[in-house]
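Thread: "does anyone have the structure for this chain?"

Original post by V.I.:
We have the sequence but no experimental structure in hand. Need at least a predicted one for the grant figures.
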Amino acid sequence: MFTAADFSNEQNDLIQSRKRRILVDAGAGSGKTRTLIGRIVSLLEGNTAAERRGRVDLSRIVAITFTEKAALEMKTRLRGECRDRARAAMVRDAAVDWQAIERDVENARISTIHSFCAGLLRQHALLLGINPDARVLDNTETRLLFSDFLEGELNRLMGEEDPDTLLLCESLGLVKTRDMLETLMKLRVRVRQLLEDRAELHGDPEVLKTYWLQDRMAVQLYVDRVRRGRKFRQLLDLIAKELMPLLDMPKVPAVLPKKIKCVESVFNAVLSHPERLDQEIASFKNNWTAAGRFVSKAIAGYEDKKEILEKIRGYINENLLILCQADEAAGNVISECANLTVSLGRLFRRLEEGWRDFKDSENALDFDDLIVLVRDHLRTNEQFRELVQRGIAYLLVDEQQDTDPVQMEIFDLICAGENGPDLFMVGDVNQSIYRFRGADVSVFARQAHRQDIHKFKLVKNYRCQGALLAFVNDFFRNARMLQQYGDYRELKVGRDALPGTAVEVFVVPGCEGDVRLNAQEKVAREAEFIAARILHWTGNADRAGETGGEDLPAAYEYRDFAILLRQGTHAGAFEEALRRRGIPVTVHVGATFYQQQEVLDCAALARFALNGYDEAALITVLRSPFVGVTDDDLLRLRIGADELNMPIADFFHSDEVPENLDHPDRLAWARELYRHLSGARHLGAGA
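Reply from O.Q.:
Generated one for you, tokens below.
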């Protein structure tokens, strides 16, 4: 059970404060979730000396989290606090009150923003003119339905020779056009707002082109991209590869460096000193020709070698032409981009309207609809806004840095005026990870600059020891990776130090500066290195024939290790390296999750339930732990089917039982399982 002594002074200030609008800048590991729970408990306690409203009913406290998992965790912890207080209560009435609150926690308004909005729409459906039985599509359903819808719409529009669709597909290709539209539709609320806010620009390509050309940054971005593109970085490697055969010629090596130096001078200017580019290009043309005469004499009579020089000259001339004309080409490129952008905007609007009509026909809403509908009705329907405000005394928002402008507008509308609830927001711009979903960290910054906001900070980290925090602080302070969000706020130590080394940095052998390795090979080499280190740290290096470097006591078990990956797609390489060395591993992300046998078995069971004549799924299910048919019995099933001249799936559904089965009960169970699943698939989700 929490007491004031369990919190720091900063945390206690937050828990007890009853300011109307609070923004908490909470660093990583600062105990913000614990503090949020403490604040809710404080509101439920009804400390009238500190509160202006007295005790608050749980149903009038709303807590918004970013994931369902976080909401479940918050409910679990709140339930535990209520239980502890009921047990510790000195007065029977207080114990009964806390027991009642504990029972109510399951229905507490602690949820994601989408669940919160869905609840408001259901509760006020008649007032808002919304079908209360409308189905809410989850992310998977939305993705699958929209993918089919988009495919059909693009095919229809191309068949009708729609000019916008044809222009985009001819310029970008069908696949890229489809991918761009899918991305825009995922962010359609913000895209629609952008198109509405700048309608005068996005309706006419000439207006948009003029605007971009007046903004020199757009031109400069294009020129810089051309001059710093991967194409030019790879060109020296390509030239070196082509020149390698010439090194075998007896007189060539003496003069070849002059030619290479000509090329290097130009590309150094491209990458580091663009102001010298014109001068270097002029110098290149003279020096290349002069050096070329020496090389040409050295390879006289070798026509195949002359072709190499011509090929290299072609590479360079082609790319130098692009470099020289980058500024002039910018105007043409921007004109083309303006046409494509306007067409893309028009096509986006048509698809959005069509997608809305499609969902209406299906009586369905997606997550974005929930947010936009609530925002729009809060804007325009005063009765709805008053009813929502009346039902909430305190609105708490967790992970505020991951909200988007529309979500923030909902919070502002609910909390507006004298009758609005108090608003308590917690966030940390350094931990924003959902920009790809439309999260906008600038929302946090704008809230911090409001005149009516009361700002608090939680800077002590209770999760990590001091040596680790010192490394993190030093890294981000010097790397300046977060400077676009303001000065880096150092994390303070909130726990006692532990013995031993906190941070070790390894440069994986062969990865640093090894241009011969591609990205996949570097990941594989890193995975091999880490697997070897884990064997060493667990004292198993000798068993696996590994060497580990410095001597360490075998104080660790495999379960003590966690590997955090920047990209889930790398999980396969690490899993393979670990399993190859006999290290047990559990993968929580990555495509390899779907290749694990238990997942394959579940997928096969689902396919079998949908199609009982899918033989591959049938055999997988029979052999899986769901049924457990042995290989011998599976062979007897196959023989029985062959004797009756029928596929094994038909034999399975015939109720025939082969002779000499070792486990006829398992076959009977498999048939019963199919009948049960086949019947259940026609039931609703709540059945």
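V.I.: this helps a lot. The CA atoms of residues 57 and 482 lie 41 Å apart.
O.Q.: and The chain has five domains: 4-133+367-458, 137-362, 461-499, 519-594, 596-680.
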